[in-house]
Amino acid sequence: xxxxxxxxxxxxxxxxxxxxxxxxxxxxxxxxxxxxxxxxxxxxxxxxxxxxxxxxxxxxxxxxxxxxxxxxxxxxxxxxxxxxxxxxxxxxxxxxxxxxxxxxxxxxxxxxxxxxxxxxxxxxxxxxxxxxxxxxxxxxxxxxxxxxxxxxxxxxxxxxxxxxxxxxxxxxxxxxxxxxxxxxxxxxxxxxxxxxxxxxxxxxxxxxxxxxxxxxxxxxxxxxxxxxxxxxxxxxxxxxxxxxxxxxxxxxxxxxxxxxxxxxxxxxxxxxxxxxxxxxxxxxxxxxxxxxxxxxxxxxxxxxxxxxxxxxxxxxxxxxxxxxxxxxxxxxxxxxxxxxxxxxxxxxxxxxxxxxxxxxxxxxxxxxxxxxxxxxxxxxxxxxxxxxxxxxxxxxxxxxxxxxxxxxxxxxxxxxxxxxxxxxxxxxxxxxxxxxxxxxxxxxxxxxxxxxxxxxxxxxxxxxxxxxxxxxxxxxxxxxxxxxxxxxxxxxxxxxxxxxxxxxxxxxxxxxxxxxxxxxxxxxxxxxxxxxxxxxxxxxxxxxxxxxxxxxxxxxxxxxxxxxxxxxxxxxxxxxxxxxxxxxxxxxxxxxxxxxxxxxxxxxx
Length: 605
Fold this sequence. Notes:
- It is a single chain.
- The chain is 27% helix and 29% strand.
- The protein is an alpha+beta fold and 605 residues long.
- Strand 1 and strand 2 form a beta hairpin.
- The protein has a four-stranded antiparallel sheet. Strands 33, 34, 36 and 37 form a four-stranded antiparallel sheet that branches.
- Among the domains are: 238-376, Ubiquitin-like (UB roll) (Roll); 381-599, no CATH class.
- It comes from Micromonospora narathiwatensis.
């Protein structure tokens, strides 16, 4: 085919352009005369040029229109590929279909386990076990996003990476299991008082896995079909050692340097440094940010009868066991210093050397737990009880510490959904709180320490809650096995690092009732019975190790020990209801072999 004497190239997929001849006015101007009929004659040169120019312009416009139509065909720009599959020019629905077909072809490769290395340990991880998947809809949406200019859509090419998802919680659980004992927990900063002396607990970093970076690395390795190494990282608490030292210098030490006067319209009370130390708390949140506050409840307990001359403390309704049944003890309203204002204002004057006076207003104070609310909790029967034995009689310091902890906890009511913390309930167990020096385990050996023996009460309380079927939140067994405790099902405690916590996961309130004799401590839980039974099934002891003999320098601080074997063991809490086992919960622990400590010089070979 020819146009204006020129030969056209062979037909292709470009739009076909047709040019239609049109009439144009003369190029040269003419005088105004009376129109006469048009005479035939040859076309003038200017006219031919306009005809040709107009035809070319129309062709270009039509070609551009056709190219635009071509470029914008489909939702996904032309030249776009995902996983090697061309999605360009397709509608979203067609692109989704094509991508799913490609994933089906790759299903064997995408389901193959990948090797994940954490520190020095490796594990084969199945993608489905951690929720690795390609979000097809999100990937197609990303593929459809492009610049609006038609040229880029017409001639551009690009590769779009698929959108990969992973179940963060399941992946974290897997990585934590692989991490095992390679990692370490973060040591939170703290400031604790021994008497009126503030002592720092400096922060130490956790050695752990960065969840975000680990997830990104695992997703990339899965797509590439390659093994991946997840590095261990240090995660520091938000409060540094320098900040702990600053808080001690600027607040903790000045706080207990002198008393504070509490002034009200009913008179004044002197708050001594010992009471200030009891009420001033430094608490770290989950990020490790250390924040000071005044715990007014603890301050009131430290002041004892001092506040009685200016205020009447409200009393919660309580429960007591009479004749084998719980009986409600009525509460009463009171008139007290506003706790929020006192905490704020006292904290403001504690750093000062002068002007250590707080003016407070007395307001009506209602008990938190009234008789009506207490009755609604449904505490009506004993659901569990546990007893352990201790040697030495009531006169020994260790026995006194056990009894003091029992007194601190006796009568505590835990509402449905609440979590009980033994450390939070008793606070620091120091001399001012009635605790004495007794043997405690520090760095693998027995040394004198204030509050030694409280672990026996902790174990007794833990077992009472365990056999009540309550939720275990936090506990840690001893490093060494002691025959006076049930293996595995026992717990130590150490202020402030180690705690014992349980949650009341029942719809009823519960009462903690403690009692003791000259050789036993008993904890009972009263509530409404839910389960038929809660029992323990033990697996066999394994990996038994024998103790070594260690000679220590003799002296008043040296404590000998007979030693004990080390072993690992599993215990299963089996809970039945309506004649069926509804839960079988595994508890595992490994005890180190306790050395045989001898307070004497090592004999010559």
